[in-house]
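Lab notebook, design round three. We kept the backbone fixed and only want residue identities now. Task for the bench partner: fill in a sequence for the structure below.
Input structure tokens:
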């Protein structure tokens, strides 16, 4: 059984990409039957890790923007 999924990585939510990445890593650790399958798993894993990083960077940007907006608000200046 292979963890490879046909769903385009760029459409996955953070949670879906993370969960599939965990499955891919576990399968790689067990050893795929062929070199070609190992390479396909590795490539999918790299794409999934990049997708997770995109989500995390986006979340960080949103938090930074929210913090900046909160520190610039008039109510904060009056405190």
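Proposed sequence:
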């Amino acid at each position: 059984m292979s963890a490879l999924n046909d769903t385009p990585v760029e459409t996955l939510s953070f949670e879906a990409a993370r969960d599939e990445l965990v499955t891919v890593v576990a399968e790689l650790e067990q050893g795929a039957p062929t070199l070609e399958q190992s390479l396909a798993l590795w490539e999918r894993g790299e794409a999934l890790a990049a997708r997770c990083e995109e989500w995390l960077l986006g979340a960080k940007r949103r938090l930074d923007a929210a913090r900046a907006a909160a520190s610039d608000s008039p109510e904060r200046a009056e405190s």
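Keep this in mind before ordering anything: The helical segments are 14-30, 35-72, 74-78.
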